[in-house]
Specification:
Layout lengths: L9 E5 L7 H11 L3 E5 L2 H4 L4 H7 L13 H15 L3 E6 L5 H4 L9 H25 L2 E11 L13 H23 L2 E7 L5 H4 L4 H10 L8 H12 L10 E4 L10 H8 L1
Parallel strand pairs: 1-2, 1-3, 3-4, 4-5, 5-6
Bound molecules: nicotinamide-adenine-dinucleotide (NAD).
């Protein structure tokens, strides 16, 4: 049982693909904390059918398809979510990422620009699209909270993260820019969580991911944060306990981002 941190709150969760997904873990915790949910993912992801199990566990939450690159889909999603909730939405989780160049094995220096445009649209501008849809429909309650997930490759070079580094930098910028406007108009807060590498479908698409995950583990005083811990952090940001946190990129990485080197890494180098 949770602590009723989200009692009476209504939220839309984007991006629960399977039980490893950060969005899946967050939906379970949000429900446990008393929230009512609407779940959504791209139509092609919903065809797997996995999400119906999650919906059932979360009090038969409606599952509404939406490709985040389609404004019509997003409008339909917010319309149906508000009908279901009988009012506005209090929180939104944007847990979406996809790189066409990574998926098709294109090196950063040889990127295909049409694929790159699609990557930026799905992984970054989709946050703008979601916020713009909610803004036009006045669909998010005053003091509502929007969280998107990002990675430290937006600030530092991780070569195999490829074009997703640029996508995350753009995502973090949209968070600040829209965060300003939505803050002024409705006190809506918008933040990104910069999460440790985590074994999920999207994460495992990055080349050399296993070696990288153990490097990050050794470079973090607290070790890598799990998907469940990330979900807990999301809950705090959806709750009323963090009302004045907005336009931030918040590291949830066991201290990785501020560590120069660790004893464990030195020992490894001396071997
Ligand atoms: N796994 C990691 O190591 C890690 C680390 C830091 C940040 N993140 C970020 O966390 C977020 C969630 O990823 P995850 O690791 O849980 O992986 P995941 O593969 O479970 O989730 C990614 C989701 O994006 C959805 N998606 C892709 N294209 C879409 C579209 N056009 N419309 C709607 N949805 C679409 C997928 O269906 C999937 O549900 C992503 O933003 C990812 O970049 C992941």
């Amino acid at each position: 049982m949770g602590n009723n941190l989200l009692k009476g709150k209504k939220g839309i969760i984007f991006g629960a693909l399977d039980e490893k997904s950060i969005a899946w873990r967050t939906a379970l915790k949000a429900y446990d904390e008393g929230a009512q949910l609407v779940l959504t993912n791209a139509p092609v992801a919903l065809r797997m059918g996995e999400i119906n199990k999650l919906a059932e566990t979360c009090g038969n939450a409606p599952v509404i398809p939406a490709d985040v690159t389609s404004m019509d889909d997003l409008k339909n999603l917010f319309t149906k979510a508000m009908e279901h909730f009988g009012g506005k939405v209090d929180f939104v989780l944007h847990s979406i990422g996809m790189s066409l160049n990574v998926r098709k094995g294109k090196h950063y220096t040889e990127m295909d620009y049409l694929w790159n445009q699609k990557t930026l649209d799905i992984s970054a501008m989709s946050l703008h699209r979601v916020l713009r849809t909610a803004w036009d429909m006045d669909a998010i309650s005053d003091w509502g909270s929007v969280v998107a997930l990002t990675y430290i490759a937006a600030q530092r070079v991780f070569p195999d993260y490829n074009e997703m580094a640029d996508a995350k930098a753009l995502l973090e910028s949209v968070t600040r820019s829209f965060g300003y406007h939505y803050g002024v108009r409705n006190k809506v807060r918008i933040n990104t969580i910069s999460q440790s590498p985590t074994k999920t479908t999207a994460g495992s698409g990055v080349k050399g991911f296993d070696g990288f995950i153990s490097y990050a583990e050794k470079m973090s005083p607290l070790g890598n944060a799990s998907a469940d811990d990330c979900a807990n952090y999301c809950i705090t940001l959806f709750s009323d306990l963090t009302k004045f946190v907005t336009m931030q990129n918040l590291f949830h990485d066991g201290g990785f981002s501020f560590t120069g080197v660790t004893q464990a890494v030195i020992e490894q180098m001396e071997k």
